[in-house]
Fold:
Amino acid sequence: MNWLLTLPILLPMLVASGMMLLRRRPMAQRLVSVLGMLGLLATAITLLVTVYRDGVLAIQLGGYAAPYGISLVADLLAAIMVLLAAMKGTAVVIYSTVSIDAEREAYGYHPLLHVLLMGVCGAFLTGDLFNLYVFFEVLLMSSFVLLTLGGERGQVEGAIKYVTLNLISSALFLAGAGILYGVTGTLNMADLAIKLPAAGQPQVANMLAMIFLLAFGIKAAIFPLFFWLPASYHTAPAAISAIFAGLLTKVGVYALLRVFTLVFVHDIGFTHGLILMLAGFTMVTGVLGAAVQSEFRRILSFHIISQIGYMLMGLGLMVVLAWSDTEATRAAVTMGLGATVFYIAHHIVVKTNLFLVSGVVERLQGTGRLDSLGGFYASRPVFSLLFLVPALSLAGIPPLSGFWAKLALVQAGLRLEQYGIVAIALAVGVLTLFSMTKIWAAVFWAPDPAERPASEERPASEERLSKEKGLAMMIGPIAGLAGITLLIGLAAGPIFEVAMQSGVQLLNPQIYIDAVHPVVSE
Amino acid sequence: MFLLVLAGFLVAAIAPGVERVTGRLAGVVLAAAPLTLFAMLLRRAELLEPGGRIEAGGAIRETLHWAPQLGAQLSFRLDGLSLLFALLITGIGGLITLYAGSYLQGHPARGRFFAWLMVFMASMLGLVLADNVISLIVFWELTSISSYFLIGFDHAREAARRAALQALLTTSAGGLAMLAGLVVMAVAGGSWEISELLEQGETLRGHSLYPAMLLLILAGCFTKSAQFPFHYWLPNAMEAPTPVSAYLHSSTMVKAGIYLMARLSPALGGTQLWFAILAIVGGATMVIGAYLAIRQTYLKRILAYSTISALGVLTFLLGLGAAGGEAAAGGAAPVETEIAVYAAQAFTVFLLAHAFYKATLFLIAGSVTHAAGTADVRRLGGLAKAMPLTALAAGLAAFSMAGFPPSFGFLSKELLLEATLKQPSLAILTTAAALLGGILFIVVSGLVAFGPFFGRRQTESPPADASSPTEASPHEVSFPMWIGPLLLGGAGLVCGVLPHGIGEHVVAPAVTAVLGADQLVPIELALWHGFNLPLLLSTIAILTGVGLYVLHPQVSRLLQSGDAAHRFGPEAWYHGGLEGLLAVARWQTGLLQNGSLRAYLRTVLLTAIGLLGWTLLRVDSLPLGIGPWPEKPEEWFYANSYRLAVAGMILLGAVGAVHSGSRLTAIASLGVVGYGVALIYALYGAPDLAMTQFVVETLTVLLFVFVFYYLPNSPRQSTPAHRLRDLLIAVAAGAVMSLLVLVAARVQIDGRISGYFAANSVDVGHGRNVVNVILVDFRALDTLGEITVLAVSALGVLALLKLRPRREKLS
Amino acid sequence: MEWIISIVVGGLYAAGFYLLMRRSLVKVVIGLVLLSQAANLLIFTAGGLRSSQAPLVPEGAKVPPEGFADPLPQALILTAIVIGFGVIAFTLALFQVAYKRVGTDDLDQMNSTDT
Structure:
């Protein structure tokens, strides 16, 4: 069953290539795109179920034993991430069949989307550090093109900042990979976990840890490296914003999780203490930034940053193990790591949903500025509910998914006596609620300032029919994602169980290493 | 019990549909839901059967799994306290639903209103029945959220939206603090079930984190129950429709904090800290609330402030029960002390009495406004003739609120005074405070209930008040709107006259639960206690109060002058705090996210230098690869001359790229750098690499020329100071990278994986060029990715060059 | 010998970073190219500059002669060069379009999406 690991990479690539041949036939392209994404989703589900049942899966490409060949490894974290990417991709692709204009489609929107997912899944599944760089570049390049597809001024300006800062990240990554090879002689991550401590150079290892913290930190948009995000995310069409928002930063977070639980665990007091501190700053700057925005998607973009802080918090809590490695603290740290995984899952679903909602809002009223929008609750109550679910979930209102995610982090933090970060996390939670209600009050509750009469939303019959049908395709995925959020909240127990299992795997890297079983060199 | 709560949510889901179908009778139909729950609760409690477990002071528990790793279970506990609250919630809820059906007749969003009301009711029910800390928090937050939607029901008005937000932020902030406190308590007490935590009282009270957990939990209770200084949101919440104010903001939601304090008092109560905080905060709220009440002129605001005062009384009583408790038994639960019993008794009776009359008064306020067209008490009067039934209910409620015998309210005041008089210390102070509150309550009841119906209008001509319509002839309201107030007001009388029944069946089990006693605490409620001090004090209070009411028109002028204090009160802090926070946010965001890519780059680079530099400094001995100084410098120089030449060439090229004024020179320098690098590759055994580098570099330079040839040369744009600053940063970064390389180059271990590649290139890979075999065979996935990047890049360039944005907005 | 090259690497990084912080788009792109050159050279150096012998297996042998240069960093750099080229090509196109849209290559005037 291990060949299953290659599918999330191969399938999108084949679908993308196939679609390049269909450039002149948009309907066929859309169909293939949706089917391809559904196939990816099916694969991802199978993968997760297999990993949950059978443990960590690994395969050596070309049959060359680790660490010589490239390994593909799926532990629970990777499998969960792949599933989330597939879910997100499905939602967005269905949405974008009606929201993306014909020109963008002709220039390869759909193939690019699939290549993006190929890069993402590859990054999640690879077990080789340089291969991670390559997949990062794949997904980065696709994101560059998607961001600028259309060539509007805003897109281009945003893209310049996005491209420049991400290229620095790549340059740093390369430097780190090169030095790491020079110091350990290997690129396989499981092998690195063995060889880096064996090299006996803790300070050099710290230097390397910093390089990777910087490189992945830029990607994950942590403080103070996040500037590219609010400058660029809101400039692209809604579907593209949506796919970026949930996914790109999470790849960075994934990479941080992976290297800081597998490879750089020698000086936890320093590295993870730093991460915890950065988590706090990230939470605060993000939410403060969101509080003063007046445009729908910019608020959401800043919130991404804030929520990344929460995810880092779970990782940073590992710092306690530096001075207190008892069974109780290990259990609490596991809860913290599990909370991070849960948080990532919750956030991807919620953030995608919110961006898609903003897309519908902008389409219906033509703007994203809060003071120019209004009246949705009165005219479209069901749609308003579909906004409410992810918004309240983001703010941490029970019984939605966000509440459980925050609760787990708070519990882990309190058990580990890290009162400062817990206080910050809770305070930021109130501010998040403030932002979300600000959007609700301005867009949904307040009356429509343009005073569009309800009749204007029902134009002549044919136009109306296609518009309504189009809306249905857009609202469908939104409803689906909202349903998933509700489900995660109501079924928090079993889902958190999976997350905890993932946390256990992360805290015990030997499980990962054993699955890959790199050849021990003399 | 879970099903009872769930039923409420399900009814909420179908409420809009039901409303549309049943039309006029929607209120009646939907009210059936809470009333059914009321009946089922009674039955569940086996109240109606003699010798039921609740009566004997016990409890019924149910548990369902939810998320056990996080301590979350759906556990429910039905004992005297929760039964009391549950009956209030469902009973009053049913009457309110009935009322609302008529009150909101014709409103287009009436169905949504019912839905949120049901959600609220179900959440509140879940809250009081919850036995698991996490479930409690879940329901607590749900009540805050449903309250937000109910307060902001008239969402087209800015004032309503703002009031809703204020309430939500205040209660949520408190709620999150409470979350932290409850988690600490659960961890300290070793269980997530409240029933088990209640047994752990001694452990908890003696725990080092006790003050912290107490303060955090109380933060939640005080914000929810509008205690000073968190009371400011409640009067503003009067923007809600009247049924909401009657239900949430007088009888149920604001009592949630009170409920929690009562529920946790066996575990956390009885200490000096508990006594001090609750008595002071409660007492202050009691007095301040009442004082502020009589300064108001709008019906609902008067009622709101008097509710705040009543909540203060309840908090006060919960605190009083602890007096002397700690001293007496050294930290044991306040079970046996007489004071505790008196206080708990007063608490329960006051809770009930207040719920009865306050809900009545709010509903009547709604009826009056509905019928007479204004809510200003100065313009209301003599409505008794037009609205006899409502007037009767008003009179009953006023009696109870003012504490006239033989109402239930009178009984509650007596018990309150007995509790304060029994205090070991500070009896005079507490009694005086209680009396003051009582007097002011009498004034309030006069203003709100007596005046509009039986008194005369104070002002005949309306003040310049454009919002109120001309007063049509007032008329009695419809059945659904007077039956509720009448029943509740009547309850206030009946329970006063015949207190024995309610005392034995409801009050006693509740008191038992509050005290955390193992056995039923016997309670005897009687109207007549004999000629004693409380009776005397009550009489004085009544006379003073009536006098004050009569003099009210004159007194009110005096009261209005105290407005200055209001400007600096807690509400001002809320606004100031919020504005201040936003100002900080604006400053911070402007500083960081200022739009300039260069600023971003500087920040990133400085961070990189900082982090990397710091780790470099921590290295005790940098294993630099410099090596010993050569013995014969000239020989060494000669041997390495070409290497040095290439290095120099690259550096010169770099400098050229930086400094040249013309674009072409810069691009050419770029080429020089690239070729120099290729030479280095060639010199150090990488011919493939060198060839690729040559080719790619040539292509790059060509591309550059194509793209930038036609651009005009731009003059130097930055100031010398800026250039120096950037230079320093860049040089520092470069130096850090150099050091990194040196450190890495010295730390080399043997046994690299490349040995495998070299050994197997021919046999396994069937190729003689090891690098090629690696690319094509051993690490083929990398090459696949690389090709993909090229393809995507090509697509991107095509799109950029060909795809022009449309002139109009893309639809 | 590495220290000479490491100075070169540092110098290239410094030049690249400096150019990146300039106001003119053209300089920024040049800086990006320098940066990628520097990164590649860094990998090369970190891999060890011990030998000038290419890792080629001569006729009749099974392994390259003793003391060959490490082939793996070379393969990595090759990949990085190609990827870098793809990226730079796109970036050039992007910057050209940016110039057309905004009318100038002054970065300080390109902040409409941020403020």
